[in-house]
Write a structure and sequence with these properties.
Order of helices and strands: EHEHEHHEHEEHEHEEHHEEHH
CATH topology of the largest domain: Isopropylmalate Dehydrogenase
CATH superfamily of the largest domain: Isopropylmalate Dehydrogenase
Largest sheet: 11 strands, mixed
Helix content: 40-55%
Number of domains: 2
Amino acid sequence: MKIGLDILGGDFAPEATLKGAILASKLLSEGQKIVLIGNQDIAKQYIEQAGEDPAFFEYVHAPDTIGMGEHPTKAITQKPNSSISRGFQLLKEGGIDSFASAGNTGAMLVGSVFSVKTIPGVIRPAIATNVPKIKSGFGILLDVGANADCKPEMLPQFGLLGSLFAEHIYGIQHPSVGLVNIGEEEEKGNMLTLAAYPLLKASDRIRFVGNIEGRELFDDKADVMVCDGFVGNVVLKLAESFYVLTRKKGFNDAFFDRFNYEQYGGSPILGINAPVIIGHGISSPEAIKNMILLSKNMIESNIIEKIKSAFN
C-alpha cells in the first residue's frame, strides 16, 4: 500500500505535513508506506532532524507549489512539477494508491476529474464531510463544495455515494438518507429540492427518509444528508465555527469538541476512480495524520470498487 501525501500543500507546510506524516507512520502496518510528494531534500532533512529514519518513507521530487490563489486549471497544466500535478500523475499511473493534500481545493478537484476521472455513471463527484451527532457517532454531509449548482438527478447519486461511504468506511448498516431543506413537508423548498425530492423518494438504491431541516442535522433523523455544494459549504463552515466559538468563550464540551476538523483529517472526493482526500488549508500535524489514516481506510475498504459496482 502506497499512500500519497502532498507535503507542500497547506498554510503550515512543509513542517505540519511532514510532522503529520511521521505521526501517521507510527500507526501503519508493515507493507504500508507514505509517499512524500514535494521537495525531497527538505523532506529528508526534516525527517532526519526529527530523529526518524528517512528510509521509512518514499519520496517523489516535485519542487513546485500551486498557491491557494492560483487558477486551478491553469496551474495543473502549467506546473507539471508541482506536488499536486505529480500526485495525480502518480495516482493515474498506479504509482500510489491514494492521494491527499491540504493545498488548493480547486486544483484537487480539477486533478480528480481530468486525471483519475469520474466513475462511469456518476454525473459529478461530490465532496463529503462528517457531521457529529448529538447522541454518538456522526453522519455524512455531501456535497460540501464540489458543485455550487446541481441538477436534481445529482442528489440521489450523492445519496448513494454517501450511503456507500457510511457503510463501508464507518460501518453504518442500511444508512438513511435525508434531503437538506427549509421544511419537513414534501412541497417545501426551492426549484432544486422540489425536483430532487421525488427522485430521491423513487430511488430503490437508497433509504430515503424525507427532508432534513437545519435544526435536525445533528440528531439521528438521517445518516447521510444531501444538498448542493453551495448549501453544504455554508453548513460546513458554520459547523466548523462551533468548536472555535466554544474555545473563545472558554468552555469545553465533549460534543462541540467533535466539531474540531483535526479529528477527521480531510474530506474525500467521492465518485472518482481513486481515493482522493482534500485537507483543510490550516491543517495541523494531527489533521494530516488523520487524513493519511482515512486514506488507508479507503484503500483497505476497497470503497472505489464498491462505488463502481453500484454505478455499473
